[in-house]
Amino acid sequence: MADIENHTGQFLSELPFFSNLPEPDLAAFIKAALLRSYGKQQRLFLHGDRADRFFVMISGWVKIHRETPEGEEAVVALFTRGDVFGEAAIFGGADYPFSAEAVEETRVVEISAAVLKTMAQNNPEIMRRVMDSMYREIRHLQIESEHLALMSAPQRVSCLALKLSADMIGGGGKFTFPYDKSLAAVRLGMKPETFSRAFAQLKPVGVTVRGTEIRIDSFDRLAEFSCSHCSAQPGECKVSRTFSRGESIATGKKCRAVS
Questions:
Q1: Is 55 in contact with 44 (CB distance < 8 Å)?
Q2: Looking at the DSSP assignment, which residues form a beta bridge with residue 73?
């Protein structure tokens, strides 16, 4: 049990939401943390359920979505390792405004709403972090709306490819697409066949697709193709880029080298 708590504590302490908190506050979060595993397509909660806990992703992928009465689905977000979600709902009406489902085998840390509320009352810094999370989510949705208005389908797909490869090191590299591509298509607001065509149209800018393997010859070249059409600033996106005189400069980019 102590080993689990130590591992969880180390993991939480490295995340922005928990980092540099006073030791008693961090210890209280760790003590309240429950490790849970969810199978593929297993629900974490449903739209309208009471927001009784928030979540920290350890591994896997979770989709946040809403459904119409006729069963049409809108995917609002996809979360993976290190992401925190559900915390804003605890303070925003006490019901989840969306549903959450594991799209792969997933492990999460769950912390009760009661603990978060109590700690936020005792330490305003925790409430400020919740507000920061809400702002980032609003800004993210604004950027996505901008992408739909200003970027072509290949540019939106290239943006996704850069985000999925953001932890890699080197000038180019390859990675395995981590979840079903049809889900990615829904997330980007396009049909699966449009998504596939958009990937094929990235070949001239150095992207090769073989099944689930995606190979990018040059991250900078691909970023210039997509990020020059996006207003996101450093810190607002995992692959923020600054463009000057037609040249791209990576800001904090890490990518696996081509083998």
A1: yes
A2: 67
Tell me the β-bridge partners of 67: 73
End-to-end Cα spacing for the chain: 40
Secondary element (H or E) of residue 167: strand 167-168
CA distances in angstroms from 227 to 20, 77, 247, listed in the order given: 32, 20, 12
CB 250 within 8 A of CB 170: no
Rama region for 156: left / alpha / beta (φ>0; ψ in -120 to 50; rest):
alpha
**What length is written for the chain?**
259
How far apart (Å, rounded) are the C-alpha atoms in residues 148 and 145? 5
What is 80-132 written as a DSSP string? Answer: -TT-EESHHHHHTTSB-SSEEEESSSEEEEEEEHHHHHHHHHH-HHHHHHHHH
Residue with tokens 């000038």: 171
Least confidently predicted of 30-39, 56-65, 234-243: 234-243
φ/ψ (deg, to 5) at 163: -65, -40
Q: How many angstroms separate the CA atoms of 95 and 114, rounded?
A: 14
DSSP-derived secondary structure letter, 1:
-
Which band of pLDDT confidence, cut at 50, 70 and 90, is reported for residue 230?
confident
Residue 247 has pLDDT above 80, yes or no: no
Q: Sheet harboring 173-176: ordered strands across?
A: 173-176, 213-216, 207-210
Question: Could you give the CA distance from residue 247 to residue 177 in angstroms, rounded to a whole number?
Answer: 28
Can you say whether the dihedral through the CA atoms of 221, 151, 136, 176 is positive or negative?
A: negative
